[in-house]
Design brief:
Distance between the termini: 65 Å
Helix content: 25-40%
Bound molecules: ligand F0G
Oligomer: single chain
Radius of gyration: 22 Å
Structural class: alpha/beta
Strand order of the largest sheet: 4-5-13-10-11-12
Shape: globular
Number of helices: 15
Length: 465
């Protein structure tokens, strides 16, 4: 029998906050309320001083422990984040705030695979989290840290999903919650969630980047805790998806993992997660991590394609994938590190490519929001460009649920989806995206014949005629 009882969580003393700037590298305690390095302004990582086989146990012990927890009804074991708590910088008696997040499925997607030119494709659907996006895996950790620090108010700037997630976890923890969203630029579905969970919803005249700037000033107040992905504890929670994905695959490392890119917290978290699994001996190599952005909001893709060492923000980012309508991504340095060390890539895709990929994913019986579909659109390009081979093992990460943006889906299927007004000289018709794989509803009379005729037309591919 494997000795799993002796495994210890990482004690708070075994972790620190570390400035990622090589010229600085300052360390701070995990219970210091920081978002960036107070010495140089650099981003912070939570650094775990763990060594395989010593602090957290040998790889086979950890694997067996995590598998045993799948059969447990303990709230921490049911969570797809806290199940992997040996990887987290929290004491064993941490006041965990959980909604049983994580535990998201990995689907086979044959229709999407064919569309991309692949033999097979897997979709890790993070939209199946409690509030419908991957943000919950980070929020459980960040709100737990807020409770530990004694914060009274938690805040974030958001394009909608972080807000919905924070609102839910703050409600669970009985904390006051304020969210800052760009007015008129987030989906109604996400707004509805935040209202229902009781958050103070502050609609800002400006875009996400403006909201992010203001909220950082606000968080200088001691009683207010900022939980955007600049917060390193958010990243700690989100990184566990790497462990869950590998666990679900019997620890077989995929060749490629492809994620959408907005503020670049998610790609940073995947990178950290895979790197730590490798350091602990749980995997032998890193999957290649690639990031896909929407063309109108793609400063990271531009940076990657250039010789520059510095990201040039996009001043007026535009995309119908509102979740990733971000011009000045906060975590680009961490994301760049993750892409480079795993020999991945970064590219951008058009609005039409996103819209069509989303409809194709739907044909696999898997719904996602527009930002998530950048992955399948990007993979199709990478296969066409010979960067991904047709027989390679590829995982696309879907970040949000189809019901996160229903207006977009309905408009696409009815040929009424129009791009942003980036080029105001264009006519409305020129801004229309083609409903290439559209599936409009058909109006029928209440007779058996009319319904059978409707079915026949749908089968022939003219459902709306
Ligand atoms: N996909 C979805 C559905 C998102 O909501 C986001 C980000 C991303 C991808 C990009 O992830 O920012 O970590 O690179 N949404 C944030 C929000 C910005 O406020 O909800 P990222």
């Amino acid at each position: 029998m494997i000795e799993t009882e002796k495994l210890q969580p990482i004690a708070a003393g075994a972790a620190s906050q570390l400035c990622i700037e090589p010229a600085c590298g300052s360390r701070f305690g995990v219970n210091e309320r920081l978002y960036v390095c107070p010495r140089c302004g650099g981003l912070l990582d939570v650094a775990l001083k763990v060594q395989a086989g010593q602090d957290v146990g040998r790889p086979e012990q950890l694997r067996a422990l995590w598998t045993r927890r799948l059969a447990s009804f303990d709230a921490r074991d049911r969570s797809g984040v806290w199940r992997y708590r040996e990887l987290l910088p929290f004491p064993d008696d941490a006041p965990v705030v959980t909604l049983a997040e994580g535990n998201t499925p990995v689907y086979d997607a044959p229709v999407s695979a064919t569309y991309c030119g692949l033999d097979a494709l897997k979709l890790k659907h993070q939209g199946c989290n409690p509030t419908g996006s991957f943000k919950d895996t980070g929020m459980t950790a960040a709100v737990t840290q807020a409770v530990i620090l004694g914060a009274r108010t938690v805040v974030c700037a958001s394009t909608g999903n972080t807000a919905a997630s924070l609102a839910a976890y703050a409600a669970r923890a009985h904390l006051q919650c304020a969210i800052l969203v760009p007015r008129g630029q987030i989906s109604h579905n996400k707004l509805a969630q935040s209202l229902d969970y009781g958050a103070a919803v502050l609609e800002l005249d400006g875009n996400f980047d403006d909201a992010m700037r203001v909220i950082r000033e606000l968080a200088e107040d001691e009683s207010i805790y900022l939980v955007n992905s600049i917060n390193p504890f958010r990243i700690e929670g989100q990184k566990t998806v790497a462990a869950e994905l590998l666990h679900q695959r019997g620890w077989r490392v995929p060749d490629h993992v492809v994620v959408p890119g907005g503020n670049l917290g998610n790609s940073s978290a995947f990178g950290k997660g895979f790197r730590e699994l490798k350091e602990l001996g749980l995997i032998e190599r890193l999957p290649r991590l690639s990031v896909i952005q929407a063309e109108g909001a793609s400063p990271f893709a531009h940076l990657f394609a250039s010789d520059s060492d510095d990201l040039v923000p996009t001043e007026h980012p535009q995309t119908l994938a509102t979740a990733i309508k971000i011009g000045a991504p906060v975590s680009w340095k961490k994301a760049l590190r993750a892409v480079v060390e795993s020999t991945g890539t970064v590219l951008s895709v058009t609005e039409q490519e996103i819209a069509d990929a989303k409809a194709i994913i739907g044909r696999d019986g898997v719904g996602c929001e527009p930002a998530s579909a950048t992955t399948v659109a990007g993979i199709k390009r990478l296969v066409a460009d010979g960067i991904i081979g047709p027989d390679e093992d590829v995982v696309a990460v879907l970040t949000g649920h189809i019901l996160k943006d229903t207006d977009y889906a309905i408009n696409y299927h009815q040929d009424k989806l129009y791009t942003h007004d980036r080029a105001p000289d264009k006519t409305k018709e020129e801004r229309r995206l083609a409903g290439t794989y559209g599936n409009p509803p058909a109006r029928v009379k209440a007779t058996k014949e009319a319904i059978l005729e409707g079915l026949r037309r749908h089968e022939q591919g003219h459902p709306g005629d």
